[in-house]
Specification:
The structure is a homooctamer.
Chain A lengths: L2 H12 L5 H10 L5 E3 L4 E3 L2 H5 L5 E2 L5 H14 L5 E4 L6 H7 L4 E3 L4 E4 L8 E6 L5 H13 L3 E5 L8 H4 L2 H6 L2 E6 L5 H8 L4 E5 L11 H8 L6 E3 L5 H15 L3
Parallel strand pairs in A: 3-4, 7-8, 7-9, 9-10, 10-11
Antiparallel strand pairs in A: 1-2, 4-6, 5-6
Helix pairs in contact in A: 6-11
Chain lengths: ~260, ~260, ~260, ~260, ~260, ~260, ~260, ~260
Amino acid sequence: MDRSEVRALLDAVATGAMSVATAEASLGTAPLQGFTDLGFARLDSHRGLRTGDAEVVYAAGKTTEQVITLLSALHGQRSGRPALATRLTDEMFAPVRNAFPDCELDETARCVAVGQLPVTTGSVAVVSAGTSDEPVAAEAAFVARTYGAEVHRVRDVGVAGIHRLVADFGVLDTADCLIVVAGMEGALPSVVGGLVGTPLVAVPTSVGYGASFGGVAALLAMLNSCAPGVTVVNIDNGFGAGVFAARVARQSARP
Amino acid sequence: MDRSEVRALLDAVATGAMSVATAEASLGTAPLQGFTDLGFARLDSHRGLRTGDAEVVYAAGKTTEQVITLLSALHGQRSGRPALATRLTDEMFAPVRNAFPDCELDETARCVAVGQLPVTTGSVAVVSAGTSDEPVAAEAAFVARTYGAEVHRVRDVGVAGIHRLVADFGVLDTADCLIVVAGMEGALPSVVGGLVGTPLVAVPTSVGYGASFGGVAALLAMLNSCAPGVTVVNIDNGFGAGVFAARVARQSARP
Amino acid sequence: MDRSEVRALLDAVATGAMSVATAEASLGTAPLQGFTDLGFARLDSHRGLRTGDAEVVYAAGKTTEQVITLLSALHGQRSGRPALATRLTDEMFAPVRNAFPDCELDETARCVAVGQLPVTTGSVAVVSAGTSDEPVAAEAAFVARTYGAEVHRVRDVGVAGIHRLVADFGVLDTADCLIVVAGMEGALPSVVGGLVGTPLVAVPTSVGYGASFGGVAALLAMLNSCAPGVTVVNIDNGFGAGVFAARVARQSARP
Amino acid sequence: MDRSEVRALLDAVATGAMSVATAEASLGTAPLQGFTDLGFARLDSHRGLRTGDAEVVYAAGKTTEQVITLLSALHGQRSGRPALATRLTDEMFAPVRNAFPDCELDETARCVAVGQLPVTTGSVAVVSAGTSDEPVAAEAAFVARTYGAEVHRVRDVGVAGIHRLVADFGVLDTADCLIVVAGMEGALPSVVGGLVGTPLVAVPTSVGYGASFGGVAALLAMLNSCAPGVTVVNIDNGFGAGVFAARVARQSARP
Amino acid sequence: MDRSEVRALLDAVATGAMSVATAEASLGTAPLQGFTDLGFARLDSHRGLRTGDAEVVYAAGKTTEQVITLLSALHGQRSGRPALATRLTDEMFAPVRNAFPDCELDETARCVAVGQLPVTTGSVAVVSAGTSDEPVAAEAAFVARTYGAEVHRVRDVGVAGIHRLVADFGVLDTADCLIVVAGMEGALPSVVGGLVGTPLVAVPTSVGYGASFGGVAALLAMLNSCAPGVTVVNIDNGFGAGVFAARVARQSARP
Amino acid sequence: MDRSEVRALLDAVATGAMSVATAEASLGTAPLQGFTDLGFARLDSHRGLRTGDAEVVYAAGKTTEQVITLLSALHGQRSGRPALATRLTDEMFAPVRNAFPDCELDETARCVAVGQLPVTTGSVAVVSAGTSDEPVAAEAAFVARTYGAEVHRVRDVGVAGIHRLVADFGVLDTADCLIVVAGMEGALPSVVGGLVGTPLVAVPTSVGYGASFGGVAALLAMLNSCAPGVTVVNIDNGFGAGVFAARVARQSARP
Amino acid sequence: MDRSEVRALLDAVATGAMSVATAEASLGTAPLQGFTDLGFARLDSHRGLRTGDAEVVYAAGKTTEQVITLLSALHGQRSGRPALATRLTDEMFAPVRNAFPDCELDETARCVAVGQLPVTTGSVAVVSAGTSDEPVAAEAAFVARTYGAEVHRVRDVGVAGIHRLVADFGVLDTADCLIVVAGMEGALPSVVGGLVGTPLVAVPTSVGYGASFGGVAALLAMLNSCAPGVTVVNIDNGFGAGVFAARVARQSARP
Amino acid sequence: MDRSEVRALLDAVATGAMSVATAEASLGTAPLQGFTDLGFARLDSHRGLRTGDAEVVYAAGKTTEQVITLLSALHGQRSGRPALATRLTDEMFAPVRNAFPDCELDETARCVAVGQLPVTTGSVAVVSAGTSDEPVAAEAAFVARTYGAEVHRVRDVGVAGIHRLVADFGVLDTADCLIVVAGMEGALPSVVGGLVGTPLVAVPTSVGYGASFGGVAALLAMLNSCAPGVTVVNIDNGFGAGVFAARVARQSARP
């Protein structure tokens, strides 16, 4: 219920078009609306209005049926942005494709978008350190694109051979936001952050063994980066990085 | 040495104005220049060119004399941006003021800026959960301003009384970037991130006791935020958040 | 052996109705009795007398046969309260239903109650942040009901969309005890604890990935809640929360 | 703004006693009020209404002046409950006593209450394992009393000599809520929780050395208690336990 | 090579019965002997002489063939003590029984002893908190018996029902050494250690979930026990506790 | 109240020498006695009877006055064993000496014994790895002696020069129990445990820096010792090791 | 592009043999070359030139096809050193053997070398504590050999029977570099480092259980070794130790 | 006692020049000698013979008197290498200089060498990331020089400005061993290790704050380095790195 609706309600009361009791009930409950109750979930139908980006289906731990139901509900709700689900399991690929024949489904990223992709506004470069970091980088790229950013990819440019990175300096320097994905010692964001001043979101991955502790080593390295202007998301959280970077890109490009 | 300088050099070789030996020496060493050797430190004089933001003096663990020497060197180097030092100790306040009478020095933020503050481009809102988080929030605000952002402050709006936060909804919604500072359970970024879609940098603080583990509880909460688009910096790292947010603000406002 | 039994025994000695040797033996062993030895387990048959709530079967790590044996023993022991088993595995569902055709078995909660459910005394509201927290919330609800509380459920009201929570403010405010279940950043108890003064038991879940560390992030957040009056149980411990809340509800409602 | 105030406002609009503009402004801002802005802090003046217990001053990290200012503001606000500050430092004792000559100040608990203590409703027993746990136990007791509970203390009853505990069985059994405070291995709550069914809040303390890790050993033990119905608060958090226990006691005793 | 052998060698040199070269070689290599090289392993054939207890086969991570080869080698080496293997896997049970038809094999303890069990000297009581701790307790009991101790078992006497423990006070008080096995909060050793002064070895188990962290909670509790005279072994290390306790029992009973 | 006292009581009831009411009261309270209430502490006066070793004063965190009061109470209670206090601070040395002129006070061990030392029964060898481990080793030695063991010391025999250890092989082999104290990598117990079969208590110390984590590295190494029969106590817990070793020595020497 | 190539280019410009534009382009891009783009990976073809050792295929997380493609590319690139892949899975053994019939494939080490092994320069001794450490030791040995070192193996010489180690003193003393592999308490490097002054690389393994925490106990012990001159690599990182030791051996033997 | 001494002894026995008893005593005790007993310490006088490098005084936790006594004893023992002490405190500087007027004492490194520095054999480059890492780098450099290496220093070349590092490529490439010192995210060793193939010892420092956890972030990053051939020592352990690097340099330069 926005401010104009409140004024309309008060006008109706003032003119007698609405009873005090009805108005009271509306005021009491209206701001509490804004979700669709599916029984097993309360879909936040207001999120797009509040934050500019609609709710997303996190498929891990859900049944295939729940994922399809939620995608349908989200898809039915809005027109300008596709419904998005992340962390699909192998078993979900075929049923989701059957349910939404026109969907965009990326098996590496484990993501699906149902509905027309938006026109891009601003650009995001997704840089990854090694080939094992690919699924996380792909998720970030898929989400950033779905949220409206043009996406560039720079792959396999770990710090043990920095010249591979320098070859793509131009991409790093002209993007509106960078997503830098690395496991193991997680040094790549520091090196990139020392080369360019583009806003940089670092994504630690769980790639590594022994004292990498499932990505903790990379996470700590990124949090302690000596390059200023590096921010960090959770281990393997390509989704969060994609959302954030797309928002920065979107507003960087606004006319 | 940028691309135009390389071309000038090659032209000089082609025309015989420069010997091959001189050209070779220049090409060999030029890209390696770009720092001022102060004996105890190598000041990165190229950083401003590469990243748009000059090197900064991290005063913790340095002597007052080193801090003043570095500030002088940085201040002498560039004109458009003040020289900045962070994490000043109590003992440094007076000598630094004596050395730079016109400086901007904030004792809560423990920061000093030497030289003219830049005209602001874009805006950053710094939101803090409790009064004990103030030093970190002040550092973030000081740095963001020094890096060219207009800064708004929202204080003491912890999640135990959310209505205090909602009162400043407008500030949150219209800023180009948010910095949300919180210790203890670190829940504030999730709540703010659920209300608005502005890019949000969360800063965990070491405020708390017992199982807060010096800010680890807040750090983990922020990394696991269920609100998409939340990125995180190191515990108590107001500086890093300020740099990042100012960069986002700067490019969000570019014409 | 309670105080009236001791007096009866002493009276019998004083009147010669019981020999000193018999009395000595009774006094020596009586307080040590109070369990049923099943060979592989010593069932604590006194627990109901001491604490008001009988011993419960924790099925994880036990065989189906052991679970059924223990349920039978408990069921045979007392009349006023059903025998309860938690953490049933998938394989136990059918055999347990066969053994106790009238049982109440909830597959989501993984709990079974054998025997008549008690009349409710007091009420408990179980609030959960996301759909993945459902199994833990269901366990808490099942146990609280079995222990005699009327139970209300509020689902999928995570802090990224707080209005979904506010819609159920009345339920939160009028319950005798709240159980708030959340994974990831575990912020929900702080928000709920800032809205109402009802005693609140927070249950962290292992829902999340990366730096959630199997529920540690949520656990730490809840322990550091800035809302006073929040207490916490072990990760995924719906059982413990249910017992505690039912006890608070029971005595809150006592006439 | 509660529900009756909304109705009054709507009535005024319906009868023309209030203009639509005024009503709109009130509705827009009223729910956002509810705090007193002291510059360095936003005192949550609604908390007492929402949760039944007013905001409290956490003195650690604040100046003596800030503590006195906040106590005055809280004391001026309400009549039925004293203003409370916790975690006072040694230096605050004298100035606080000077500022509030009639205050109740406990140097072991490091707490002060300004204003008349409430009549007690319900009872809380505070049980501590060792003499070193006394400050935390004293804080819990002070806060529980200030929040309206009658308080009983049982001291130095660590599990290495359980008979000391059994001597006070009656106190444990008849209280409305128990607070059990222990450091080192933190076993006392499990033993107490096996003896009685009273709701029990366990408080781990930082007492210990080496692998106690500042209270972590006790915290983990309490979270893993095999006695059902044990809940836990943060390490050394006597305040939180006191608030919670007083609430349980209060509603247990309601007529 | 003991002192009498050295003297014999020197006598032989002095009398010319042995050449200097032969003597030198013997002195150089003799102390270095004392193992049997099996290719994949160097069996320490001196360990029994040095420590009184022969080397043992830790089967985890070995093939069934290696386990049988090592058991044969150990069995062939000495007569007075059986060859022992621990941590057998399910697949090893049948082949080991086939290879050593007269062996003693305990499937719960996952241990096998090949050869005649020794006459007992001294006694060990193995006390366990819950039914899930049984495998670890069984390993401790099996090993203690194999190393020559008479073993008594007390089962399922967790601290949530202490009277079950007190029923076996006599066993605890008269043993030469106690092994106390517990998971979850690991409080049992503290309670037992407060009741009797018998040397006590505590064994934390990995039984539990959530914040038990695979036995860490129990381990920390036991290391921080407020009962003096409690020592601790690794999580689930029934073997180590059994060896240690049997040694204490053995020397306690020596005439 | 032991079994003979119960019989005497029942006889008195049977003969009418004692009323039923008196007997009931005695039975109800007798087992609950066994401590001296000093107000700030409940001195466990039964501990010596139960466990063979009286309660001990842990001085850390207590005032000098409390320590002297507790020593006096303990000293007054029993004759055969001195009253013991550990972890004295520097400030306590002089006042404690003044209060008990004949006491045995060791400033390195930070321990005092008030009263006649017992005749020794059995022997304990205390082995330490480096000079920095001396305070912990001294505490262990002091306590073992006070508890009745003859004590031998072997100092500075770290594994980087094993021949220093071998020089004292005889001491290690003939003691009734070993206490092995080491910081840093904590390897000494494994080496000693491979040489002799004497029961061995390992004490990790907080000596080290960086990744020693205040003794955690040594603690973990000792818990994972590949030498069987090594048990471990808390970091820096010389007291616990001393009590345990003295008990083993005592019963090893019993005729 | 090395220095002689730069000079040739400049000479060509000076003599007019190359245009300024061509020279500029070469200078701009040449240093950025040095990798082969395979689509899913950027093979660092310069690494051998820069560091003396070519890039290696880490097979974990890659498909068998990717591993074979990468091995072919590496093998085609250089002649003097075989192409190496580590961490092969069981499924890769047969296809890799089919693809490269002359390869050297070690199933214990899970490594393959394609191409002629180099002549050895210098020697490395690989010492392992137990039979379970064999796979890690084998990987270290395989890699060291592939990188050009002569390799000696000393197996199963854990510190619980040190004489087994002393038997191979000569091997330890004459090698150019030692690799010491151990799990559990990780004490072996300290003991070896106390015996000889040969450069020593310690490799912790994940062998152990409970508080070994997957190799953390061994890692910490090695980092805290009291023997100077011990360096450490990641848990189970036989590869890194092999590369490092071969480099030390290579330069130790250079004429 | 080395092999030639054993032969001489046996010859003396064979020729009757030495009695069997004398020979036996020598053989029995000789290998056990090799240390000087100073009461509070057993100085390992054989270490230089065994490992090529004499024992060193670790001054932390020792008194100034102990440090001087140990330095005198070490200095008196050998001629070719100076006596070395590390981790001197401020208070030790003057007394140590007084005791050894010709000593080499470096206050930044907190080290002293007493006696003639050896002629250098081989070279070590010590590279540090920031000015705060200087004390650790200085310790490494001092120790490497004392152990016989020529030392080159490269300072303040953190990865946020990599060109500063490239300027010293020649130094990195020609050294016999590298020591790379870094705090915060610890990325420098990976970058250096990708540029050159020189054996590289990484030293994490405790420089940083928040989630650097006193150097843990840097330690983990270095252990997980994607550049092969990087080994690691303990946090702030410049000493260990210096010893190791000097050994590698020494043997790399041997003729």
